[in-house]
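Below is a filled-in request sheet from our internal design queue. Each sheet records the structural input a requester submitted and the sequence that came back. We keep these sheets so that new team members can see what a complete request looks like end to end.

REQUESTER: design group, bay 2
PRIORITY: normal
MODE: inverse folding
CHAIN LENGTH: 257
BACKBONE (tokenized):
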């Protein structure tokens, strides 16, 4: 017998566990064959509409994070979400400012923070990868009329692990409702909103990549975030500084393994 070179033991392991729980789930939920067929048609529409990443990141990603990273030290991770793009423009000129239009709508926001390890040692030259929605509630490159990579940028922390970046205040995000994901939201009677949030991904040699989000106290949707991405430790205050707003949050990265 020749060995099947592409057999993946981890897939076998996960599929076995999945089947065990699937049977338990079916025994409890007792979907009939018609309901099964309706589900397959809906899942097919979901995929064809390109909404599979959206649906997964809204309804499943939070559970992956809570299960695996629940009680580890360091900043709590939050959802990567479906709107991350690799290779956002590198911003090198200080003061850092996210790429935006000349007449970008929205309130100017200065966001700052310090990145350290779990012992409080500053992590200089950490790559900070930033993305968010615009004042219309759109992410660039995903149906927005904004130019590619608008409000997306990468920059490095200074020798004290600090960074400070100019952007605009994000607004609450309404996930698309006109497709199969919206259909599903109607079935479960759930609103389509996420509280306003900043997405940040931190990368540093020898440390676990940290993917997280920042939320603002007082937001109307914090308690009922459709994607369940809010964590109390990721909340900060927006301070009014007259012609702009300012917010700060510090971040803690943990070593690889
Ligand atoms: C978002 O903006 C988001 O961050 C997530 C996790 C899911 C859908 C839209
Ligand atoms: Fe988002």
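RETURNED SEQUENCE:
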């Amino acid at each position: 017998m020749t060995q099947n070179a592409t057999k993946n033991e981890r897939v076998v392991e996960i599929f076995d566990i999945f089947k065990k729980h699937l049977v338990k789930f079916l025994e409890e939920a007792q979907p009939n064959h018609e309901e099964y067929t309706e589900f397959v048609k809906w899942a097919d529409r979901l995929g064809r509409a390109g909404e599979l990443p959206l649906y997964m990141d809204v309804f499943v990603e939070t559970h992956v994070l809570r299960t695996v990273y629940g009680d580890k030290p360091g900043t709590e991770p939050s959802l990567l979400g479906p709107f991350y793009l690799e290779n956002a423009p590198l911003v090198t000129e200080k003061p850092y400012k996210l790429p935006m239009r000349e007449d970008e709508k929205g309130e100017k926001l200065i966001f700052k923070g310090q990145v350290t390890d779990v012992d409080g040692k500053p992590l200089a030259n950490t790559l900070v990868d930033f993305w968010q929605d615009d004042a219309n509630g759109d992410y660039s490159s995903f149906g927005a009329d904004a130019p590619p990579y608008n409000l997306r940028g990468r920059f490095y922390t200074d020798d004290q692990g600090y960074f400070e970046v100019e952007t605009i205040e994000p607004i609450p995000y309404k996930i698309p409702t006109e497709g199969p994901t919206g259909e599903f939201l109607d079935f479960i009677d759930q609103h389509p909103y996420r509280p306003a949030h900043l997405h940040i991904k931190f990368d540093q040699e020898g440390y676990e990549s940290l993917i997280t989000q920042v939320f603002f106290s007082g937001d109307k949707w914090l308690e009922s975030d459709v994607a369940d991405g809010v964590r109390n430790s990721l909340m900060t205050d927006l301070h009014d500084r007259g012609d702009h707003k300012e917010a700060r949050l510090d971040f803690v990265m943990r070593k690889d393994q």
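SHEET NOTES:
- DSSP finds five helices and 13 strands in the chain.
- Helices lie at 9-29, 33-48, 52-59, 61-69, 180-188.
FILED BY: M.R.
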